[in-house]
């Protein structure tokens, strides 16, 4: 699990990287899909920036998403997503566990 960080709040979500150019984040308490982060085959449609060992930002042409991984695996998320974008991974399911603040 990771935390989706908003301006004043953060919520725990399960972030899943699928075998399509899509990330899904799910509310783990309600088991409801909260959003799909979709990008096209154009690798420029999605960028990931690591701001600290535990914080990373996903940027699409329409929106930016900030996440916190309490286990400090922001770089691993970046490697996994960029590997998928580069076609190096045919299928990857990433699930990171986050602790409370």
UniProtKB/TrEMBL annotation:
Coiled coil: none annotated. Signal peptide: none annotated. InterPro entries: PDK1-typ_PH, PH-like_dom_sf. Residues 2-86 form the PDK1-type PH domain. This is PDK1-type PH domain-containing protein.
